[in-house]
Amino acid sequence: MKRVLVANRGEIAVRVIRACRQLGLEVVCAYSEPDRDSLPVRLADRGVCIGPAPARRSYLNGPALIAAALGVRADAVHPGYGFLAENADFARRCVEAGLRFVGPPAEAIALMGDKLRARELAASLGLPVVPGSRGALGTMADVEDAARRFGYPLLLKAAAGGGGRGMRVMRSRAELADGFLGARAEAEAAFGDGTLYAERFLERVRHVEVQVLADSLGQAVALGERDCSIQRRHQKLLEEAPSPVVTPDVRQSLATAALALVRAIGYESAGTVEFVLEPESGRFYFIEMNTRIQVEHPVTEMVTGIDLVAEQLRIAAGAPLGISQDDVRIAGHALECRINAEDPAQGFRPTPGTITDWRPPTGEGVRVDTHIVPGAVVQPFYDSLLAKVITVGADRAQAIERMRRALDGLRVTGVPTTASFHRALLDHPDFQEGRVHTRWVEETVLGR
Amino acid sequence: MDVSWDDVRRVLAAIDSAPGEELELEVGDLRLVVLKRGQGAIRPATTPQDFELKSRAVGIFRRAAVQDGLAFVVDAGAVAQADEVLAAIEVLSETEPVRAPRAVEVVSLLVADGEFVEYGQPLMLLRPRS
User: Fold this and answer.
1) Which residue of chain A is at minimal alpha-carbon distance from B114?
2) How far apart are CA A252 and CA A263, in angstroms?
3) Which residue on chain A is closest to B58 by alpha carbon?
4) pLDDT confidence of B29, banded at 50, 70, 90?
5) CA angle A326-A104-A259, nearest 5°?
């Protein structure tokens, strides 16, 4: 493997380029017309324009990306996250074209991409799953039956889903019909597949996910958990590792469960097995597996010292894992704040525009993953993530203190950002004492 | 031998900065002879109305194309009506026709047959015909 095409944009493209450089790989960045002057294109050895602004004609255009990779004689494609990262057909077509797909085999993507099948497989392996329907819900009668069996609140989810789309929480029989039709329409629009299933909706739970790495020789390791309970409408805002509420015993059980799934599906590359956790009992339930590098991967890197993107590239090149489970050590505590070009005062409305001044924070234990430079344009066509501010400390208190100073030191003008919202979160006693759950931001901070 | 883009950049810089019209370069088992010609000698005369036809696809440029079942190779001087096929771009196993946006004459081709082209890359210089 000598030359990698980055089939993505923004901070993750910069991140992949950095890992390629570290491994001595040449790197070509695919870009859409408005991204011509973006930082990743400037950092790469070469850029290739793959289409106009709309993602479906550029970053979601699989044939153009594969033709670009072949045209520049790349031998591997890194999909980043989002866009085509979890598109099994794209992964398959890369391999058919003679390219290495830096990610898992297409079959593993397809299997875990069907959330209903993934849940059934996990249950068959003995992983705890949230009580819920065994098959798809085709009619209102199926939904009513699920409500009778699992009770309220009932959660409807899209089988093809992710990112909170096609999801509805229903608290009474009166809400069933609207919830069912709404979720089905949303899933149909978002994924082209309206298949739904139902789970009992667990309240006051935390979102805890296990980072895994697996090589093509069948070796797999679990790299501890991340806690991503600070969410707004299922979108993660702040993540940390390790979780402030996971005990060593629970950590061990989470790792065992995650690795059982990874081994059963012949997984390769980096992946994340997601669970919800009831903090009081320590009981956890599998929800889904994400077959890509995640936005929040840096917090795991900061407490394990393992470069996950470099490992993805090494695994794609056929190299064995350089570490065994016994080598994995979780040291210290890390936090990540996603700084978005959104206005917290206006319901987190995206705020595209030109960044007139940009001074990222520096200091002991501070890392910033970003694609922003002064003069950068935040495009209206894509997600609004400007930067991930990551801090690491000897313990959680030090990581929080460093994050406070980092956010105080961040200077960004030109567009409103979520930095002030994050800064306020850090001072909230519930957050400091680790007493949050996945609905905490909406219920407590935003008062809904 | 393996040649990276950095190597190519270094070679091009060496050619650019070399005095004289002729340059011979030997790197390992590679021997490169470059004859520098004055610019413009082979470039056709252009008019202010001439415009570039840009690629709408990513793939391999093909001068050979098919229109109405007839295969042909486009060259400078060729004329075409609006929507007539001028060339093609192979995108994996599919072939996307490159069409004339209006009645035109081909002034010159800007990429060679078999060359990789990006989205938006100029493919040929065209002159409007009334």
Assistant:
1) A71
2) 16
3) A64
4) low
5) 35
Token couple for A140: 């209102």
Nearest residue to A269 via CA among A326, A220, A209:
A220
User: Does pTM surpass 0.95?
Assistant: no
Domain A206-445, CATH among 3.30.70.20, 3.30.460.10, 3.30.70.3270, 3.30.470.20: 3.30.470.20
CA distance A307 to chain B (A): 26
A173 is annotated as an active-site residue: no
Interface touch A67/B118, C-beta < 8 Å = no
| Chain-chain contact of A72 with B116 (C-beta, under 8 angstroms) | yes
Query: Most B CBs within 10 Å: which of A50, A58, A96, as the mutation test of the B interface?
Result: A50
Residues A369-421 pLDDT 10s: 999 999 999 999 999 999 999 999 999 999 999 999 999 999 999 999 999 99
Cross-strand bridge partners of residue A359: A411
Give residues with Cβ within 8 angstroms of B95, minimum separation 6: B62, B88, B89
Q: Which two tokens stand for residue A124?
A: 């068959």
Partner A contacted by B94 (CB < 8 A): yes
User: What domains can you pick out in chain B, each with its CATH number?
Assistant: 5-35 (no CATH), 51-128 (2.40.50.100)
What does the alpha-carbon distance between residue A90 and residue A72 come to, in Å, rounded to a whole number? 18
User: In the CATH scheme, what is the code of domain A131-200?
Assistant: 3.30.1490.20
Task: Give the start-to-end residue ranges of the domains of chain A.
Answer: 3-102, 131-200, 206-445
**Residue-by-residue DSSP string for A330-375:** --SEEEEEEEESEEGGGTTEE--EE--EEE---STTEEEEE---TT
Biggest CA–CA distance in chain A, Å, is 60
Query: d(Cα A240, Cα A124) in Å, to the nearest integer?
Result: 30
The CA–CA distances, whole Å, from B98 to B49, B93, B101 equal 20, 16, 9
Closest-CA distance, B15 to chain A, in angstroms, reads 21
The ipTM, to two decimals, is 0.90
Contact A83, A35 (CB under 8 A): no
Mind listing the pLDDT tens digit for each residue in A46-78? Answer: 999 999 999 999 999 999 999 999 999 999 999
3-state secondary structure of B5: helix
Catalytic pick from A119, A292, A338, A367? A292
How far away is chain A from the Cα of B130, in angstroms, using its nearest Cα? 30
Q: Which of A26, A33, A64 sits opposite B58 (nearest CB)?
A: A64
Contact B91 A67 (CB under 8 A): yes
